[in-house]
């Protein structure tokens, strides 16, 4: 269970992106991204507080002047104001919980909790082929397509689970230090981690790669936040709305 004595962070992106801290909360929605669809569904549910794991305005610090006169930003702000919805980013504190709420939620959704250890990147699962693991992730997480580098028949037991976007340096470091059979990530820079994995295998290495997609890889964590938070504030209805995969696969 994700608990822990969290200390206030001086430099954090976990701030209000819309709304006022003084407004009375009528309902809570958890999600990965506060998309237009999520905002409209929250309004339909009469929930005026959205906890979003990732940015609302398309850059890490939600700088609304990141691109001057951004019409999409302006329209989104108008929609949030129309419905009186506050959006708060739950990212840094979410990952500071023990265990990390996102990785815990993903392990739970994949039925890998028996192999999950707080603070560790490696899960030692029963031996399965790379193809079987990819298929299991697709079915358990509701993902349409994943991308893979590796021999689909190779057996895997040591799994490095890094949902979301850890960045190339941390992803490559995880492989160098932990030497997993397969590295599972949400997203990556193709010119960094993917090329490292490709060359590593051509040089005789065995680590394979599965790319899930950023949003779908962390969504189970924000879904699990409902179970964690609801008992703490039973008077408010908390609903998870998946922001989903933005891509259509052809």
Automatic annotation (TrEMBL):
A divalent metal cation binds at residues 53, 92, 214, 218. One of its GO terms (cellular component) is cytoplasm. Keywords: Metal-binding. One of its GO terms (molecular function) is metal ion binding. InterPro entries: DUF34/NIF3, DUF34/NIF3_sf. Belongs to the GTP cyclohydrolase I type 2/NIF3 family. This is NGG1p interacting factor NIF3. It comes from Paraflavitalea soli.
């Amino acid at each position: 269970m994700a608990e822990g004595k969290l200390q206030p962070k001086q430099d954090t992106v976990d701030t209000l992106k819309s709304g006022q801290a003084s407004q009375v909360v009528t309902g809570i929605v958890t999600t990965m991204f506060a998309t237009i669809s999520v905002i409209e569904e929250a309004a339909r549910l009469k929930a005026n507080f959205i906890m979003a794991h990732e940015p609302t305005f398309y850059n890490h610090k939600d700088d609304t002047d990141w691109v001057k006169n951004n019409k999409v930003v302006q329209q989104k702000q108008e929609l949030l104001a129309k419905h009186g919805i506050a959006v708060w980013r739950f990212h840094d504190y979410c990952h500071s919980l023990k265990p990390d709420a996102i990785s815990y939620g993903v392990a739970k959704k994949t039925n890998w909790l028996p192999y999950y250890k707080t603070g560790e990147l490696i899960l030692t699962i029963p031996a399965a082929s790379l193809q079987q693991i990819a298929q299991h992730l697709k079915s358990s997480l509701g993902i349409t397509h994943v991308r893979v580098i590796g021999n689909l028949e190779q057996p895997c037991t040591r799994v490095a689970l890094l949902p979301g976007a850890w960045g190339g340096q941390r992803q490559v470091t995880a492989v160098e230090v932990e030497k997993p059979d397969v590295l599972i990530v949400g997203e990556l820079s193709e010119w960094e981690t993917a090329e490292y994995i490709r060359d590593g295998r051509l040089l005789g290495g065995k680590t394979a790669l599965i790319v899930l997609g950023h949003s779908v890889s962390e969504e189970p964590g924000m879904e699990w936040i409902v179970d964690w938070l609801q008992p703490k504030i039973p008077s408010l209805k908390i609903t998870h709305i998946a922001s989903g995969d933005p891509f259509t696969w052809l």
